[in-house]
């Protein structure tokens, strides 16, 4: 009877080991995916970040990159702990999983908080940023971001093209008679912004603010879903770790 119980215990431990190893491999791949989403958010869309006054959006992306890097390291550690069957390594692995779990949840919460306040922030700041900082010597990054925004989303001005009438740059001689920036034009050429007829420039209802809001909200959903999704998967890993930890005999001291 004792031999049967020992074989049963050994079989259960082996199954747990391979389940945990499989989990760690998938977990390592997921870590790479999480890190890629964070890096993509910061690098590919970095121009739009300069149009936002709040740093919560970029903070969520940084948290994802950090969590993704830790996940990849933890995945390797988890494989080592599983095959060496060392309870101390399993304890370290469990603590790291818990830390990543909290980081992912924090990223999801930040994304959700910013999701709620995004519309108000854009209403308060985007128009002022575009009219006061566009084509100003110390704000080249804002100029690039606005031009990219208007060309990619086929829009003109924060709420409408008439917003540009209050632009510091449009009112100056440097504008060379332009009524809107050249990036508002459907076919962009030098000085095309002198003519603000709908046949020449983008006249979109709601202006760029609605386009940018939709874009950021879509990305916040991705950040939040990735963060919470990976966090839920980690719960399974923590359960497997606890089961394997209990099935192993205590290390001799």
Overall shape = rod-shaped
Low-confidence stretches: 1-9
Number of beta strands? 0
Largest sheet: none
- Label the structural class: mainly alpha
Q: Could you tell me the mean pLDDT?
A: 79
Please trace the helix and strand order, writing H or E for each element: HHHHHH
Distance between the termini: 29 Å
- Our Rg estimate from Cα atoms comes to 26 Å
Strand residue percentage: under 5%
Kindly state the percentage of residues in helix: 55-70%
Number of distinct helices = 6
Q: Any key phrases for this structure?
A:
mainly alpha
Description:
It contains six helices and no strands. It has 253 residues and is mostly helical. The protein has helices spanning 2-43, 46-49, 56-84, 87-133, 140-152, 207-247. Helix 1 (2-43) packs antiparallel against helix 3 (56-84), helix 3 runs parallel beside helix 6 (207-247) and helix 4 packs antiparallel against helix 6 (207-247). The longest helix is centred in the middle third of the chain and has 47 residues, at 87-133. The protein is rod-shaped, with a radius of gyration of 26 Å.
